[in-house]
Amino acid sequence: MAIQPTVKKKRRPKNPCNRLFERTMAIVALANLGLVMFDLTYVSWRNFWLQGNVVIPFVGKQIPILPGTHYPCPDSSRRPNEPPRLVQKSFITCLYDPIKGIEPNRDTEFYLRLVRRLEQQVSQAGTPSGLRSPEVAATLKQLRILSADMISSNPFAAVGKSGTLERIKNQIRDRVQEKTQQELSSTKAFELFWSEPYLARYGFQSEVGSFNTQGNLFIRDGWFNQTIAPLIATNYYRAIGENGEFTDNFWIIDAPFVILFFLEFLARTYYLSSRYTSLNWLDAMLWRWYDIPLFTPFSLFFPPLALSRVLPTVLRLNTVGIIDLDQINAQMRQGFVASIAEEMTELVIIQVINQMQGSIRRGEVMQWLQSAGGRRYIDINNVNEIEAISKQLMELVLYRVFPKIQPDLEALLSHSVMSVLKQSPAYQGLQALPGMTNLPQQITDRVVATLTQTVYESVKASLEDPELAKLTTRLVQNFSTTVMSEAQNQNNLQEIQTLLTDLLEEIKINYVQRLAEEDVALLLDQTRHLQHLSKPD
Asked: What residues does 218 pair with on adjacent strands?
């Protein structure tokens, strides 16, 4: 893909490890590009990596993609005086959240832990008597207070997830209104939802859920655990660095790749400079300019620029044969050529016609005729090339071509004459006489043969006659001289200039119209087909 200079190559034995090394580095570049794309999309796709499902827009239906197994991860959001605890995350978020400085949000995480406590309290005391216990009443009161605080303070706004809070408010409002048939605000809906009468009437397990364990798996059913809790769990806190930006430690992962590709770049360019006699080390570095994005630490100042590593990665994969860019390259060339072919062709043709029209209007044609009429012709070999070429062609036709086509020519003339005679009444009457059936054909064949031979001998004699050749040459010279002289007449010249200008204008208009009607893509397809047919098998 890269344009390589024409250089003299030193003779060195081929290293069998080169291809393996090239393939390995191409795979490493592909892995690094995959990590870059994963890092750039991680924050926006964190809900997917956390819960393993995709939500269909406008419908709200969740489609599970990844396994729903969660792992206990250390909770970095706890306060210093609190004991260590674990939070449930997916394996990917458990590993990658620290890289992006993501921690559980203390407010929303405490809210979910309070719901878990409520489940345990109700489960231990049983329903419906457990809902009337003082511990459950205190927990419900605290949940009502935290729900109102969550709506008013919006802990989702710091990381740009205010839309999640709106979904929570809409979901709780719709659920409570569906059950109670009352028009309520989201705050009032939460207040009613976390009340003993509501949960006792509509069922704690159906509205919130039951908390049971089977091994290391947590089974949570109920509307709140299936609808609201996953939305609250997506909230997080992201640390901010001294530069005022969100913490991003991707450079820790990217640094080994940067160092590896930098060392490889130095080694490769040094090898090229030693392999080619006309290249120094700096020239070799300029030759491999497209490898520079691989070892540029974009993660330290502007991570999106790391996507420029697509170019060297694709080139390496194409070089080692993992992918084939020939078809893509052909399609790209076709699209490029098709987009400019019409405009370029119109531009060139119209410019040429405009130049010709300008020359005619400026009188350059008259100047050329005048200079041609009074200018001495320069002969470099004392041979009249036009006369010599004409003579050679005539001899070729008379002595080599005519004898071979004479039978066919006589047959054609004989058939033509007989076709005319058959339409004559005299011929039809002659055909009726006894013994006269073949006479017209014989006479016609004889006449045609004699006529053809006579014309051939006449032309041959005229070609071999020096006097006739001299008269012919003088006729041609006088004709050209007379034409040039009469063309210099002002009236004739003005009329010719006008006609030529109008003719060129008509050609320009009609040509552009026909070109606009052409399907350039079809022409390119026909061209490729012809090129394919012309290639040897």
From this structure: 213
pLDDT bucket at 114, cuts 50 / 70 / 90: very high
| pLDDT per residue as tens digits for the range 8-40 | 444 444 456 788 889 999 999 999 999 999 999
* Residue 425: alpha-carbon gap to chain centroid: 77
> Hey, is 193 helix, strand or coil?
helix
Cβ-contact 342, 516 below 8 angstroms = yes
In terms of pLDDT, which residue wins out, 181 or 369? 181
Cis check: omega of the bond before 128, within 30 degrees of 0: yes
What's the pLDDT at 220? 62
As a whole number of Å, the end-to-end CA separation of the chain is: 26
* Measured distance CA(249)–CA(96) in Å, rounded: 10
Mean pLDDT of 315-338: 78
CA distance 63 to 196: 34
- Alpha-carbon distance of 84 to 434, in angstroms, equals 134
Are residues 304 and 17 in contact, defined by beta-carbon separation less than 8 angstroms? no
Query: What angle separates helix 439-464 from helix 466-487, to the nearest 10 degrees?
Result: 80
Based on the number of CB atoms within 10 Å of its own CB, is 131 exposed (0-12), middle (13-18) or buried (19 or more)?
Answer: buried
Q: How confident is the model at residue 456 (pLDDT cuts 50, 70, 90)?
A: confident
Distance CA(469)–CA(355), nearest Å, equals 41
Cβ proximity of 283 and 275 under 8 Å: no
| Residue 117 pLDDT exceeds 60 | yes
Per residue in 129-148, pLDDT (tens digit) is 668 888 999 999 999 999 99
Both tokens assigned to 54: 């995709």
% of the chain with per-residue pLDDT over 90: 32
Q: How far is CA 344 from CA 336, 349, 518, 524, in A?
A: 12, 9, 14, 15
The answer to whether 237 touches 102, Cβ cutoff 8 Å, is yes
**Residue pair 398/459 in contact by the 8 Å Cβ criterion:** yes
The CB-based long-range contact list for 195-198 (8 Å cut-off, 24+ gap) reads 195/140, 195/144, 196/131, 196/132, 196/136, 196/137, 196/140
131's CB contacts (< 8 A; 6+ apart) are 122, 196, 199, 200, 204
The rounded Cα 71 to chain-centroid distance in angstroms is 42
Q: How many Å apart are CA 414 and CA 447, to the nearest integer?
A: 9
Residue 176 has pLDDT above 70, yes or no: yes
Instruction: Give the mean pLDDT of 203-216.
Output: 70
- To 10 degrees, the CA torsion angle through 394, 397, 399, 402? -140
Q: Is the pLDDT of residue 254 over 60?
A: yes
- Which of 60, 116, 65 shows the shortest CA–CA distance to 88? 116
Residue in 183, 165, 44, 176 with CA at minimum distance from that of residue 111? 165
Q: What backbone torsions phi and psi does residue 62 show, to the nearest 5 degrees?
A: -100, 130
- Return the CA Rg of the chain: 47
Non-local CB neighbours of 41 within 8 Å, separated by 6+ positions: none
- Calculate mean pLDDT across residues 343-350: 69
